[in-house]
Amino acid sequence: xxxxxxxxxxxxxxxxxxxxxxxxxxxxxxxxxxxxxxxxxxxxxxxxxxxxxxxxxxxxxxxxxxxxxxxxxxxxxxxxxxxxxxxxxxxxxxxxxxxxxxxxxxxxxxxxxxxxxxxxxxxxxxxxxxxxxxxxxxxxxx
Length: 142
Hints:
This protein has 142 residues and is of the alpha/beta class. The protein has one helix spanning 115-141, and strands at 13-15, 20-27, 31-33, 36-43, 46-49, 54-61, 63-66, 69-71, 74-82, 87-99, 104-111. Strands 1, 2, 3, 4, 5, 6, 7, 8, 9, 10 and 11 form an eleven-stranded parallel sheet that branches. The longest helix is centred in the last third of the chain and has 27 residues, at 115-141. The two termini are 30 Å apart. Belongs to the bactofilin family. Residues 121-142 are annotated as: Disordered. This is Polymer-forming cytoskeletal protein. Pfam families: Bactofilin.
């Protein structure tokens, strides 16, 4: 009778202190890491690595704030902020970067406005993979 409007409500995701997670995360929500993460993260939101957080990961996001440690390659469509307690070891492709006094960045940085298209292409590729997997499951079930 009434059309239901299907809206995704982005909820923040938290990896708490004392938690270790390994794998891939694909989300539209913001992500906060206070524990430890190993793998790959893609989000259309913001990633915050807290002061005690450790990420050994490749990250794709809109905004990245590092107060803990990140080891890996990051693609940031917007702003990368490294706070006084933050450490980034790896390659960064960003639109803008702020390294506050005391913050540490060891690696290579490329500033580009093309990051958006790279993030969109990556997201589309992952969406295509999910579609193919769903179709394969449907064929197996039916």
